[in-house]
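Quick question, first post here. What does this chain look like in 3D?
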Amino acid sequence: MPDALRLALTTLTIAPVRGPARLDRRTAGWAMVLAPAVGLALALTAGGLVYLLRVAGAPNLLAAALDIGLLALLTRGLHLDGLVDVVDGLASYKDPEGTRAVMKRPDAGPLGVSALVLVLVVQVAALASAVGQHRGTLSLCVAVMTGRLAVTAACVRVPAAVPEGLGALVARTVRAGVPSALCGLLVAGGAVALAADPDAARGPLLRAGLAAAAVLLGLLVARVVRGHVVRRVGGLTGDVLGALNEVATTVALVVLALGAVRA
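> Answer (accepted):
Ran it through. Tokens below.
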């Protein structure tokens, strides 16, 4: 477990920790299981920035933009880079080998850049709405953990696209029941936190359902996207994991933002 935690931190964040003493598929599997917990730590760090900016009187939009920017910094933009590469690869309409070749290019195509801009704009707008409803930190925690849980789920049955790289290291390393258990914990935790919100105008049952909807819809959309991307790419890669993280995070943030207005 210590090696798995170090691998999760060094892979998913810029935390200044040593790499694992032992790097094998078992360690990699546990690292992917710990991904949602790492997401929680990232979200709480970024959520602290939201709180400080609100105390300072910063506009909601500015607070949200700086917060999403901090998340990108804390993760080295790894997931956003994966999103750009996957979109560029899909836009090539080539076979799996050709698609992966496009994804490895250092440049970014117009569709990849457009996808990056769209995702960032939607995330900032959704988070700004949640911040305006005094749910910025909570929404960020649920959404970021949902994104990392989509990564965990992708490591259950999906084969690796190539025999080397991050995808090969983590593919099929997570047991089938683990993502479901983590999803249940995330739904329960988010539901309790939202239901106990003293600033909400609606009943606790509606607010609890909001957290469940955000997590489940985020994972569902990521699952659909995963099926298409894996067929086109030929299996799991590090870029695919990054793209799935951003998709699930964005969907969860949108659901939470829309629900915050009504709840």
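Residues 84 and 113 are 6 Å apart (CA to CA).
The first helix runs from residue 2 to 12.
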